[in-house]
Amino acid sequence: MQASPAQKRDAANSIFSALSAVAKTTEGDDQVQEKTGTKRKEPEPEEDVPMGLLPVEEEPLDWQVRLRKLTHASSALAPMTLDTVFKWIKEAVEDPDAALSRDVIRKGVAELQRRVSKGEPVSEALFRSKHDLINKLKESGLADLAEEVDIAMRASQLAKGFARNVQQACLDGQTMESMDHYVKTVVRGCDRKGWMMRRVFIHHLSQVAARSLKAGDQDAADKAEQSLIDFGTVGGWPYIISWLKETPDPAKWPSAEVLDQLGTCLPSRSPAQLFAALYAILSSPKLGCTPKSLVRIEKILARNVSQAFNLSTVEHSMPLIKEIAASGPIISARFKTVLKLLAVAMEVREASGNLQSETWQKLLGKIQDLRAAVDVKTSKGWQQLTMSEVDFVEELKAVAERSLKMAMENEEVLRQKQELVQHGQVQERLEQCRLAVLAVANEDGLKEKTKAGLKICLIKMKNLHEAMQKVEVPSPFCTEAWNIGRAAIQDFSESDLRCCKAFQWLREKNLGFCVRLLDSCGLLEQLHLIRESPQKLDKVGLPYRCCQLLLATAEKDALSKDTFAPKLEEVPAGWEQNTSRHLNLQYFQKEGQMQWEWPLPVNLVPWRNDGGVDGSTSEQWQQQDEDHAIPEAKHFAPDPSSSVTALDDCPYKEGSRCLLCLEDFDDEHESSSMHGQHMKFWKQITDRMAMLCLDLEKLPQDGYRQMGLASAWRGELWQALRVSPAPPKSVLAPFWQRVVLRHLAPADSTSKNDRETAAGLQALLKEALKAARGAGNESQETSQEKAEKDISAAVASLDKRVSGLTNISITPAVAALKDLRLTVISSSLYSSDTRSDILDHALKALRQAEAAIEQFCSQPAFHVVVQSWLEEKRLESCLPLLSHRGVLTAIAKGEAVKADAAHGLPTHFSETLSEAWHSEGALRLLRPRRSPPDDWELVFSRSVGLFYYCHKTIDGRAQWPYPALAENETKGSLAKVPNILDEWTRGKPVAGNALYAEIASKGEPICLLCKGQGLEHFASAGHSENIAIWSSIQSRLSEVEHGLNVQLTLVTSASSLTSFEMAALTKAWLHEIQHTTLEPADSDDARKQQVSRVFWHLLLAPWSQKATQLVQVQQELNRALTMAGLQEPKWSELEWQARVPPQPHVDFPWPRVSKLKLPQSTPSEVYDALSAQALKSEGITAKADGTLWCTYCDKAVKQLSAHLNRIFPEAMQHIENGIAVKAVVAKLKSEGHQMRCEGLVLSKRRFHCSLCNTSGNWKWICDHRSAPSHRDAYNVFLQSSSPAAAQVQINNKKFKEAELVAWKKAMAMDQAMDKD
Question: Which helix (H) or strand (E) is 1180 found in, with range?
Answer without folding.
Answer: strand 1180-1182
